[in-house]
Structure formats: structure tokens, C-alpha cells
UniProtKB/TrEMBL annotation:
Name of the protein described by the UniProt record: Uncharacterized protein
Amino acid sequence: MKPRAQRVLTPETSFDKIVLMAIERGKFTNLLFDDPSRLSHRALGRIVNLLEKSPPVQAVMAVKPIRSAFLNAVLKGIKKYADS
């Protein structure tokens, strides 16, 4: 037997399957933000939709500052927890 050139990701749970299907179909935004009557859901949905449809380089450039701010907040919380 020869190994495949490209591996196939088999979802472990139904949730994983639903998320992968949404990503493949370009509906991940709808899965995350499902209440269009709320302004916050509409705004965040549009942002995620733009990131989803943008080229990978632009998406990485857009997410980089958010990721660092998120990680900084997480590290700050961990340090607080460790000190107490």
C-alpha cells in the first residue's frame, strides 16, 4: 500500500463535521453569528466574512494584531492567577 499524497481529515465528532462543512461552503460566519437582529452579530459577521473571502496573506495581516492582543490578555490573566 502506498500513502496518499494528501491526507484526509476525518472529523471526530458531529460538531467538528458541522464546522468543517461550514468552512468548506463559506458559511462559517453564519455558524458563528446566527442572530442577525443584533448589531454586534452583524458587525462581527461582516468582519469574519471579509476575512474568510480575502486572500490568505491579507487575512494573516489582519488577524496578526488581534491575535497578539488576545494572547497578551490571556497571558496577563494567567499571571494574575499564578500570583494569587
